[in-house]
Amino acid sequence: MGLETMPVSKLHAESSYDPADFPVPTGREEEWRFTPLSRLKGLHNGTAAPTGNVVVEVDAAPEVTVETVGRDDSRIGAAYVPSDRVSAQAYASFEKATVITVPREVVASRPTVINVRGLGEGAGHGATYGHIVVRVEPMAQAVLVLDHTGGAVYADNVEFAVGEGATLKVVSLQDWADGAVHVSHHHAQLGKDATFRSFVVTLGGDLVRLSPSVSYTAPGGDADLTGLYFVDAGQHLEHRLWVDHGVPNCRSNVTYKGALQGDGAHAVWIGDVIIRAEAEGTDTYELNRNLLLTDGARADSVPNLEILTGEVAGAGHASASGRLDDEHIFYLQARGIPYDEARRLVVHGFFAQLLEKIEVEEIRERVLSAVEAELAR
Amino acid sequence: MSTLEIRDLHVAVGDKEILRGVNLTVSAGETHAIMGPNGSGKSTLAYAIAGHPKYTITSGAVLLDGEDMLAMSVDERARAGLFLAMQYPVEVPGVSVSNFLRSAVTAVRGEAPKLREFAKDLKNGMDALSIDPAFAQRNTNEGFSGGEKKRHEILQLELLKPKIAVLDETDSGLDVDALRVVSEGINRFRDTGDTGVLLITHYTRILRYVKPDFVHVFAGGRIVEEGGPELADKLEDEGYESYVKASA
């Protein structure tokens, strides 16, 4: 009693394939207020001409099929409807989509790697719009790596449709060149007893705004969303999580951690979770931690948890942003460890638990050395 | 033969003067006990020598074998041969004990120890202090009990082999068994010969296991009386009251 049946939050209320259904953001909207619109190169207001050059290449496991299809393919948009202006713009503007299918009951023998490579210098010349559909059919299992590199202004949508009893593990690396702009939605739709593991690593680019979301079509879905970001001077790296518990007995866990250093380094983390009235037995937890390594860096962290049922298995959230702890550094230095090495150990320690979750060893090594390189700056 | 010399040391926290002229010389082969009531500045002395940023040295000198410790960074002091066993060892999330110790040993020795040798030293050290080998994979001090943290401090002492060790209330919060294990570790370290120990404590209890050569009574931010081991017995009987009154 006393519980509302409609969410108070107006976020995620609108969805449409047509950009005209979304007003051009002004920066005052809740969903846009943290994003520096002037750095979006026109992705948000229809002025970004599709004259950029981004190449999508897939190195697939032998059991996995890869197709490049036109806009009229019925699998496109089946699992996801755009929920903001840029997402709808990308949906309306892409020319070819990549469809990856893991057939029923197949266990892929190695990771499938999707290379998304911007051929521009920095922000390049003009924008590119993309669309990727990943379908994991019932009882199938696969590991997928989305590797974003190079220079581009790129807006895209990625749909993950994870079938009944299937498992999909995705690592998405945003390792763009300086100056790149990337606005992306990753939506996972989980079938009955499906398992989804997402690991997001965002390091490079002038502005990255990534919105990973999850919805469930049947009970038993299990989503684990992990993220790691390292923000340098002048970078804006934004992650907007959205988990929609609309059916009973599903689980979600969100853990994002970031380190920031340098003037104007800006991290934004939004963690929206809704447990709808019908989603009894939901178990959810979301956490965001930010480590501010220098002055001049800023982290905005906003968890929102809305619970519309009295019957949850567990629901919680936590968010904290803080500086490198002087006592940690002192303790390590008091054992002879030089300051830089002490700082490196503590930052590694901050990310350690997350890094262990990356199952693809070469990716883990790459992320590790990327963190090393950031710390050496 | 190493010598730590503390000369007329004045230390403040913010505007508040805590140490008011401490003079003390600790040479290798000697064990000095500093005893005093809570709030007398004992721990300040320990942290100031180690270089904790919270403490400001307003005047005086600290020399290790003639070298000016106060001009050195915290890690340089440790590499020069100073060790501080802390009263409240710090939890460092995500940094395993073995990674931490290997980094410390590498820094202090100036080269990375051979992996197999280090593993053996670590195992022997942990065995001697009755530390569960599984602790090597745990995060440094995280979730350790008070006694486990203190054992871990002494493990570091034995691995890093400093010239001078400052032990800040290593005995506090230990039950009798843990006190014995920790004291044995300190004694093993002393028995290696060329090392000096400055043992800071509130209670005489640990001095039954670790026999001091000199006892200094600390009150009001300075040493107010000095003597041999018999001074500890006197404190045991009479407490600190007369010193606290005199320094007030």
Q: Largest beta sheet of chain A, briefly?
A: 9 strands, mixed
Straight-line N-to-C gap of chain A: 55 Å
Biggest interface, chains and residues, is: A-B, 23 and 27 residues
Residue share in β-strands of chain B: 25-35%
Structure overview:
Chain B: Keywords: ATP-binding, Nucleotide-binding. Chain B: Belongs to the ABC transporter superfamily. Ycf16 family. Chain B: It comes from Microtetraspora fusca. Chain B: This is Fe-S cluster assembly ATPase SufC. The complex is a heterodimer of chains A (377) and B (248). Chain A has 2 domains: 305 residues, no CATH class; 52 residues, no CATH class. Chain A contains 4 helices and 18 strands. A 9-stranded mixed sheet of chain A has the order 1-4-6-8-10-12-14-16-18, covered by helices on one side. A 9-stranded mixed sheet of chain A has the order 2-3-5-7-9-11-13-15-17, with helices on one face. The radius of gyration of chain A is 20 Å and the shape is globular. The mean pLDDT of chain A is 94. Chain B has a single domain, classed as Rossmann fold (3-Layer(aba) Sandwich). Chain B is built from 8 helices and 12 strands. The longest helix of chain B has 16 residues.
Features:
heterodimer, A: mainly beta, 9-stranded mixed β-sheet, 4 helices, 18 strands, B: 248 residues, Rossmann fold, 6-stranded mixed β-sheet
